[in-house]
C-alpha cells in the first residue's frame, strides 16, 4: 500500500478552485478595505456588494442610462443652438470690442 494516496477532500478541491480563480484574493481585498474604513458603513453587506461589483451593469440599468444619455445629448444640442442664437442677437445690440474703444 505504499502507492495509496488518500483522496483529496471536496472542501480542499473547492478551496483550491476559489484560490486559482482569484475569488479568495478579491474577497480578501474587499474585506480588508471594509476593515480599513475609518467609519464603518451601517450595512456591511451592501458595502461588499458595491465593492465587489460584477464589472458589467444590469441590462435594464444600461438601457436606462443609454436613454438618459440620448435625452441629455438632445437637450445639450438644443441649448447650444439657443446659445448660438442668443449670442448673434446680442451682437446686434452691443458694439464689437473694436468699435467700443473709440474716444
UniProtKB/TrEMBL annotation:
<protein>
    <submittedName>
        <fullName>MYC binding protein</fullName>
    </submittedName>
</protein>
<comment type="similarity">
    <text>Belongs to the AMY1 family.</text>
</comment>
<feature type="coiled-coil region">
    <location>
        <begin position="62"/>
        <end position="89"/>
    </location>
</feature>
<keyword id="KW-0175">Coiled coil</keyword>
<keyword id="KW-0539">Nucleus</keyword>
<dbReference type="GO" id="GO:0005634">
    <property type="term" value="C:nucleus"/>
</dbReference>
<dbReference type="GO" id="GO:0003713">
    <property type="term" value="F:transcription coactivator activity"/>
</dbReference>
<dbReference type="InterPro" id="IPR026060">
    <property type="entry name" value="AMY1"/>
</dbReference>
